[in-house]
Automatic annotation (TrEMBL):
PROSITE patterns: PPR. NCBIfam families: PPR. PPR repeats lie at residues 38-68, 69-103, 170-204. It comes from Rehmannia glutinosa (Chinese foxglove). Gene3D superfamilies: Tetratricopeptide repeat domain (1.25.40.10). Keywords: Repeat. The keyword DNA-binding does not apply. This is DYW domain-containing protein. Belongs to the PPR family. PCMP-H subfamily. InterPro entries: DYW_dom, E2_motif, E_motif, PPR_At4g14850-like_plant, PPR_rpt, TPR-like_helical_dom_sf. Residues 385-477 form the DYW domain.
DNA sequence: GGGCCTGTGT
């Protein structure tokens, strides 16, 4: 009969292989042989389910466990954080604290990673204060989690301080700080940091170059991007992955070099995925090339037939070109397939609580006050000469909803809530799951001026730091 | 002799 040691090792193998079938089988077996109450085995099972991406099963087992120790809590928290469910990770963490359990460094790492995704600065800071600062500075994993949390929350200066104080720096923490600098617009600093990597005798890896390319993209530095892309394979013997190609396509397409971007896709040694084509589509949008966009969208519909956005955009383009029949065909194809749209949502953290908003959301307890604030803002915006823009019609999926949800995109709701819930000198931080919409971007710039507030919005790929009527992205995103 | 940790393109 296997003992608990054997079972733990076998489950660890399942975790590493992401083999849910084998893991399930062992779970049943564990119960059959009466080992279902062993803490080590149960924690291994929780971790196995988490690693296999089945958080429902991990959670069910976790809830059944009569005795959970700190490792069990760490496994479930980390599981939620790693599976893109940061809110759940924080909820479990708060439950853990109510039981007066002291977090260990594994728990803290999971919590910081969740806070980074949510942009929850206050929670991240209070979690990190539960540990001795030296723990962060001497443990590269913890240090990296902290640096990443600060960077993703827009506190790049603090992230940098932690980074410089680290006793030992490995390539992973360098990557975290390089991509942090890139995301927050400190591109030259990211480049210098790459110099430091070599000075420290470290070997850059693929992620180092992803960070650098990402920085080039945000700053529109096409030549630098081409250089790094060339250097990575020719000087550092790293094979570019599809992620690197995607980044290059993005860089070229944003800069208006649509042809070169398209040729890059066609020359890739691997089959292009939806992300790569999506980067080219973004360029078509930015530079208003509907002809190429039509071609790209056809590729995208083939690659991801369930994605509503592609159908909507293609049908918009057909309408704009008076191809009414084709436009209608696309719409009915979409209906026939029962395709649902992805909805945009935004988060804002107020006093350690993360609030979530959907487009046109009225579920929030403060909803009435939020909409009143929005009305007030809209009036002030109009007075300041703002006209809701229809310029993005062709390329904005959310456009057709705009009439019904005038001014009610999730980021605007989060902003209105932030404005009424904080003192006038507090910086407002919002996180969005999609790109910030063009109209909201214009409105936010003006709102930052009217209200004299700093507003930081992190969308899917970059920071928008609004201050005194302008944005750090210089309208290039 | 055992179980939980960081970065990563749209």
């Amino acid at each position: 009969m296997p003992d608990s040691y054997t079972l733990v090792r076998a489950l660890s193998a399942c975790s590493q292989l992401r083999d849910l079938g084998a893991g399930d089988w062992i779970h049943k077996y564990v119960v059959d042989i009466g080992m279902g109450r062993n803490g080590f085995v149960n924690t291994s099972l929780v971790d196995m389910y988490a690693k296999c991406g089945s958080m429902e099963k991990a959670r069910a087992l976790f809830e059944e466990m009569p005795e959970k120790d700190i490792v069990t809590w760490g496994a479930i928290i980390q599981g939620y954080a790693a599976n893109g469910l940061p809110k759940e990770a924080l909820e479990i963490f708060q439950r853990m604290q109510k039981q007066s359990l002291r977090p260990d460094c594994y728990v803290i790492v999971g919590v910081l990673s969740a806070c980074a995704r949510l942009g929850a600065l206050q929670l991240g800071e209070s979690a990190s204060s539960m540990m001795d600062r030296n723990e962060f500075l001497s443990n590269p994993v913890m240090g990296t989690a902290l640096v990443d949390m600060y960077a993703k929350c827009g506190k790049m200066v603090v992230a940098w301080e932690v980074f410089t104080d680290m006793k030992e720096k490995d390539i992973i923490i360098f990557n975290a700080v390089i991509s942090g600098l890139a995301m927050t617009g400190h591109v030259k600093a990211a480049f210098s940091c790459f110099g430091l990597v070599q000075k420290c005798g470290l070997k850059p890896d693929g992620n180092t170059f992803l960070g650098l390319l990402c920085g080039c993209t945000h700053a529109g530095l096409v030549d630098d991007g081409r250089c790094y892309f060339y250097a990575m394979s020719h000087l550092y013997c790293l094979d570019p992955t599809i992620e690197h190609y995607g980044s290059m396509v993005d860089l070229l397409a944003r800069a208006g070099l649509l042809d070169e971007a398209h040729r890059t896709i066609l020359s890739m040694p691997m089959k292009a995925n939806a992300i790569v084509w999506g980067a080219l589509l973004g360029g078509c949008r930015l530079h208003r090339d509907t002809q190429l966009a039509e071609h790209v969208l056809k590729q995208l519909i083939e690659l991801e037939p369930w994605n509503s956005g592609n159908y909507v955009l293609l049908s918009n383009i057909y309408s704009a070109n008076q191809k009414w029949d084709e436009s209608e065909n696309i719409r009915s194809l979409m209906n026939k397939k029962g395709i649902q749209k992805v909805r945009g949502y935004s988060w804002i953290e107020i006093d350690g609580v993360v609030h979530e908003f959907l487009v046109g959301d009225t579920a929030h307890p403060m909803s009435e006050n939020i909409y009143a604030k929005l009305m007030e803002l809209t009036k002030e915006l109009r007075a300041a000469g703002y006209v809701p823009t229809t310029e993005f019609v062709l390329f904005d999926i959310e456009e057709e909803e705009k009439e019904h949800f005038l001014g009610c995109h999730s980021e605007k709701l989060a902003l209105a809530f932030g404005l009424i819930s904080t003192k006038s000198n507090v910086v407002i931080r919002i996180v969005k799951n999609l790109r910030v919409c063009g109209d909201c971007h214009t409105a936010f710039k003006l709102i930052s001026k009217i209200t004299c507030r700093e507003i930081i919005v992190r969308d899917t790929n970059r920071f928008h730091h609004f201050m005194d009527g302008s944005c750090s992205c210089r309208d290039y995103w």
